Amino acid sequence: MKEARKIQKAGYSSLAVSLPSSWTKEKGIKSGDIVMVSEDADGFLKIVLPGEPSRFETKVSINADLCYESEILKRVIAGCYLLGYDTIRVTSNKELHPSQQEDIRSMTKRLPGLEIVETTLRRVTVRCIVDPSRIPVDELMRKLHVMVTAMHNAAMNALFGGRPELAKEALQMENEIDQIYHLVVRQLLLALKDRDIASEIGIESPLHATGNRVVAKALEEIADVTAGIAKETMALTAKEFKMDDKTLQDLQKFSSLVQTVFGKTMKAFLSRDLRLANETINSVIQADAEQRALAEVLGKQEGSGANYSLMYMLWSLGRIFGYCKIIAETTITRFLRQTSPICSIEKEAVR
């Protein structure tokens, strides 16, 4: 419904606009009723009717009988969690298979805020107890950054310091990072559906939510890449392989560059620093030449028996640069959404 309505003066300072009669009759609104009026992030006014709940609990039922492919039930549960459903019911017309019961339990442990509230032979009900309005997205993004940094440091110390126990610790951190990542995505999707939640958790607009989703995914991918390095380190340790001093120094230098650029990248994103983001992208471009030179040196080594592992680690570190570039580009577009001394924004009506 879209109708033109004339603005009229009401009293000394207020302006008024009439509500369409068809809409008021449908909603049961009559003269004298009180409604709540709020402004959303785009400047539109939202009318909340008297007695209308500000939020609704959403429930979803999953037919487990149709989720017989490997891993599909886990992924469906994860998808329902990310979409912000409060209650997830997994049902079967016969009985849930023991493997399906185990899939439900494992996802309940993996996704933060989920707990099983009912279990029968044919149905398991899972509920999310997280209050989305109490978890700001920026706080979660900072936590992701801190944990990914700690994981990367642990993996690198395991590789260069000969401490395989740190590689195992890095892999444990990956599970915690995955949990935070899933919570971030859930929060962002809820913010896109509910502007009230968006304002409560610091999401300024749908574009803001999209940018955070891109950065959160980049951080999660960096954690996955780092996990690969940790696993390769454990494999080398099992083979009792030791790098020669020159290779060790070259890889350490390249790893330090990765850590420095990653730190600058996240500092630029969290502070919306355009120049630092630009510096990050320039550093990534320059690092490509260093990676190629180091790859050429590693490729010429003979008889080490671990060339594949070393090349894999170098390639993995290079992938982190790629994710840093994505985050930096997102930072620049976020900066440019607001008027600044560098960029002045004007709006002009076209119709």
What can you tell me about this protein's structure?
- Helix content is 59%, strand content 10%.
- With 351 residues, it is α+β, with helices and mostly antiparallel strands.
- It folds into 3 domains: 8-48; 59-132, Translation Initiation Factor IF3, CATH 3.30.110; 135-335, Phosphate transport system protein phou homolog 2, domain 2 (Methane Monooxygenase Hydroxylase, Chain G, domain 1), CATH 1.20.58.220.
- The chain has a 4-stranded mixed beta sheet, covered by helices on one side. Strands 1-2 form a two-stranded antiparallel ribbon.
- Strand 5, helix 2 (72-82) and strand 6 form a beta-alpha-beta unit.
- The longest helix has 33 residues, at 206-238.
Strand and helix layout:
Blueprint: E1 8-10, E2 14-16, H1 21-27, E3 36-39, E4 45-48, E5 59-63, H2 72-82, E6 87-91, H3 98-110, E7 114-119, E8 123-128, H4 137-161, H5 164-193, H6 195-200, H7 206-238, H8 245-271, H9 274-300, H10 307-335
Parallel strand pairs: 5-6
Antiparallel strand pairs: 1-2, 3-4, 6-8, 7-8
Helix pairs in contact: 2-3, 4-5, 4-7, 4-8, 5-7, 7-10, 8-9, 8-10, 9-10
Q: Are there runs of 5+ residues with pLDDT below 50, and where? A: none
- Identify the strand order in the major beta sheet: 5-6-8-7
CATH topology of the largest domain: Methane Monooxygenase Hydroxylase, Chain G, domain 1
Q: How far is the first residue's CA from the last residue's CA?
A: 19 Å
By CATH, the superfamily of the largest domain comes out as Phosphate transport system protein phou homolog 2, domain 2
Radius of gyration: 26 Å
Order of helices and strands: EEHEEEHEHEEHHHHHHH
CATH class of the largest domain: Mainly Alpha
Can you give the helix content as a percent range?
A: 55-70%
Strand percentage: 5-15%
- How many helix segments? 10
- pLDDT averaged residue by residue: 90
Count of discrete domains: 3
This entry's quaternary arrangement is single chain
> How does the major sheet shape up?
4 strands, mixed
Structural class: alpha+beta
Shape: flat
* Overall number of strands: 8
Give the name of the CATH architecture of the largest domain.
Up-down Bundle
